[in-house]
Design brief:
The protein is an alpha/beta fold. It has two domains: about 400 residues, no CATH class; about 120 residues, no CATH class. About 60% of the residues lie in helices and about 5% in strands. It contains 21 helices and eight strands. The strands form two sheets. Strands 4-5-1-6-8-7 form a six-stranded mixed β-sheet, with helices on one face. Strand 4 and strand 5 form a beta hairpin. The protein is globular.
C-alpha cells in the first residue's frame, strides 16, 4: 500500500507539473514578444519555403531584426507550427517541452551522482517550481533549449564515465553539447569549457576516448565557426553583448594604456559582474522582474524561503555527492563566469544553465535540514514554500498578464485578426509602427500581421529591405500634419498618435485595449 501511495503521488505531481507548465500557454505571457514573433515567423517561413524572412536559404544564423539568432530553436519549431498552426502555443511549444525534459534529466543526473532516488526527485521538484525556470519555459527562448542540451550532455557523459561500456553515450553527449551551441550564442563559450573540463574531472579509460569526445564535439560545431568567419554580421548579437564592447571599456582597450591596466579593467569588470550574479537578493527576491522595478511585488529566480537551503546545500554538498561535488561547483562557476563576460545586469536568459546546479544545492539543503527536523518543522517548511509557490503562480497567471501588455507588444495580434477580417473592404491599410506612452517603442508589425494572417512568406521575402509595404498594408510612422487622407483607407494608430479631433474625414471603428483596460491602439476608417 505504501508503494502504491508513493507511485500515485509521483504520477499526480508529474501530471500537475506538466499541466501547470502548459496551462494558458497561449495567453500568459499575454502576447508574443518581439523575439518570439521573429522566431515564429522564421520557423513558419522555413516550413513553407526553406527560406527565412530575409530570403536566406536554410541559414545557420537567422538575421531576424538585426540580432542574428541561433538556428536550432527555429528549425525545431517548424513542426509544431505545421501541426498547431500560427499560434502562441506552437511558437512556445519547443521551450515548454525543453523545460519539462530539463526537469526530468536533472533529476536523473542527481540520482546518478548521488545514488539517492529521493534527492533526484526533490531536485526535479525544486527546478519544476523554480519561478525563473517556470517563466523561461513558457517563452520562446533559445537559451531555455540550450540549457536542456547542457544538462543532457553532462548526464550522458557521466553515464559513460561510470559504465565505460557503450561509446554511443559519449557520442550522444558530444552531440548534446554541440546542439547547445546551435541553440544559443552564449553556449559557444560555456559548452566548450564543459566539454574540456569533464574528462579532467572524470577521466575516461584511455586517451583515445577523451580525444574522440573533444574532436567529435568540435567537429560538429565547426560549421558555426565557419559561418561566423564568412558572415561578420552573424556574431553581432553575441559580440555586442560582451563586456569589451561596452563603449567606455572598448575605448580604453583601444587606447595606448599598458596591457596590465587593460587587463585590470577587464578583470575588475568581470569580478563586479560575477558578484552581481551571485547576489542572493537578486536570486531570491527581485531578479525575475515580472513587473516594473518600482512595483513592491517582486520575485526572484527561486522561491524566497529556499534561500537558507541553498546555503545549507553548499556546505553539505560533499556529504551527498562525494567526488561529484567539486564538479557541481565548477559547473556553476563556469556558467557564472561566462554570464559575467556579458554586459548589463544579470540576465535570466544567460543564466538558465545555472539554475540546475543551484536547484541541486537547494535540494541537498532540504534533505540535510529535514533529516534531523521534527515533524512540525517539516510541515512548516513544506507549508511555507507551498504558500510562496501558490502566491507566485497566482501573481503570474492573474496580475502579470494584466500589467505587462506594453512590454509584450500587446495589440498586434488583435490588429492582425481584425484587419484580416476586413482586408477586402479597403484599398490601403496604414499602420503606425510605434506604440506605448509617447510612442517610445517601435514594434515590428510586419511580422505579426503576416504570421497571424497566414500570409505567404514569399511576399515578405520579396519585399525590399526595411520596406513597409506588404500587399495592402503600409507600415510607417504617421505624421497627421503631412498625411494625405484618401478615401477607402484604414488607419491603425497608437493611443499616443491620434488624429486631430477636428478631422471629420476619419471614423473610429475599433479600439484595442491592453489587458489592464487602457487603450493601446485605435483603428479609423476614412469616410
Amino acid at each position: 500500500m505504501k508503494k502504491i501511495l508513493i507511485l500515485f503521488s509521483l504520477i499526480l505531481l508529474t501530471a500537475s507539473v506538466i499541466y501547470i507548465r502548459l496551462y494558458c500557454l497561449e495567453k500568459v505571457p499575454v502576447h508574443l514578444g518581439n523575439d518570439e514573433i521573429s522566431i515564429a515567423w522564421d520557423a513558419y517561413s522555413i516550413g513553407k519555403t526553406l527560406r527565412d524572412e530575409h530570403n536566406h536559404y536554410l541559414p545557420l544564423s537567422f538575421q531576424s531584426h538585426g540580432d542574428y539568432k541561433a538556428p536550432l530553436y527555429i528549425y525545431l519549431s517548424v513542426l509544431p507550427i505545421k501541426i498547431f498552426g500560427n499560434t502562441e502555443f506552437s511558437a512556445r511549444f519547443v521551450s515548454v517541452l525543453a523545460g519539462l525534459l530539463t526537469i526530468a534529466v536533472t533529476g536523473l543526473l542527481v540520482y546518478e551522482i548521488s545514488g539517492q532516488k529521493s534527492l533526484g526527485f526533490l531536485t526535479a521538484l525544486v527546478l519544476a517550481f523554480c519561478p525563473g525556470h517556470f517563466y523561461a519555459s513558457r517563452i520562446a527562448w533559445e537559451s531555455n533549449l540550450a540549457a536542456f542540451w547542457v544538462v543532457l550532455g553532462i548526464y550522458l557523459y557521466l553515464l559513460f564515465a561510470k559504465t565505460q561500456k557503450s561509446l554511443i553515450l559519449l557520442t550522444l553527449s558530444g552531440l548534446a553539447f554541440a546542439l547547445s551551441a546551435y541553440s544559443y550564442h552564449l553556449q559557444k563559450m560555456l559548452s566548450p569549457l564543459l566539454v574540456f573540463f569533464l574528462p579532467l574531472f572524470f577521466p575516461l579509460k584511455n586517451r583515445r576516448q577523451k580525444y574522440f569526445f573533444w574532436a567529435f564535439t568540435f567537429l560538429l560545431v565547426l560549421p558555426l565557426a565557419l559561418d561566423l568567419l564568412n558572415q561578420s554580421g552573424t556574431g553581432s548579437r553575441a559580440n555586442t553583448q560582451m563586456i569589451w564592447n561596452i563603449p567606455t571599456i572598448h575605448d580604453y582597450l583601444a587606447s595606448r594604456h599598458s596591457i596590465v591596466l587593460k587587463f585590470s579593467l577587464l578583470f575588475s569588470t568581470v569580478l563586479s559582474n560575477f558578484s552581481a550574479h551571485i547576489n542572493l537578493g537578486y536570486l531570491f527576491f527581485t531578479g525575475l522582474a515580472l513587473v516594473p522595478q518600482k512595483t513592491p511585488f517582486q520575485f526572484g529566480w527561486f522561491l524566497a524561503p529556499s534561500l537558507p537551503f541553498l546555503l545549507t546545500g553548499a556546505i553539505s554538498g560533499k556529504k551527498y555527492l562525494g567526488k561529484y561535488h567539486r564538479f557541481l561547483f565548477s559547473w556553476l562557476a563556469l556558467g557564472l563566469l561566462t554570464s559575467s563576460l556579458t554586459r548589463g545586469e544579470p540576465n535570466l536568459g544567460r543564466n538558465l544553465p545555472n539554475l540546475a546546479p543551484y536547484s541541486i544545492l537547494i535540494a541537498i539543503g532540504f534533505m540535510e535540514v529535514s533529516k534531523n527536523a521534527r515533524s512540525w518543522l517539516k510541515i512548516a517548511i513544506i507549508g511555507f514554500n507551498g504558500f510562496f509557490l501558490v502566491y507566485f503562480l497566482s501573481f503570474y497567471f492573474v496580475h502579470f498578464p494584466k500589467y505587462s501588455g506594453e512590454n509584450w507588444q500587446y495589440g498586434y495580434k488583435q490588429i492582425a485578426l481584425f484587419t484580416k477580417s476586413v482586408y477586402q473592404n479597403y484599398d490601403r491599410i496604414i499602420i503606425d509602427s510605434r506604440f506605448g506612452p509617447n510612442n517610445r517603442y517601435v514594434g515590428i508589425p510586419h511580422l505579426y500581421l503576416p504570421y497571424f494572417s497566414d500570409v505567404d512568406p514569399r511576399i515578405i521575402q520579396k519585399r525590399p529591405e526595411n520596406n513597409g509595404e506588404i500587399g495592402k498594408y503600409s507600415i510607417k510612422e504617421i505624421n497627421w500634419e503631412k498625411e494625405a487622407i484618401k478615401p477607402n483607407r484604414l488607419y491603425v494608430v497608437p493611443e499616443a498618435n491620434l488624429p486631430f479631433l477636428e478631422d471629420k474625414s476619419l471614423k473610429l471603428v475599433r479600439t484595442i485595449y491592453l489587458p489592464n483596460s487602457k487603450p493601446a491602439f485605435r483603428i479609423f476608417e476614412t469616410i
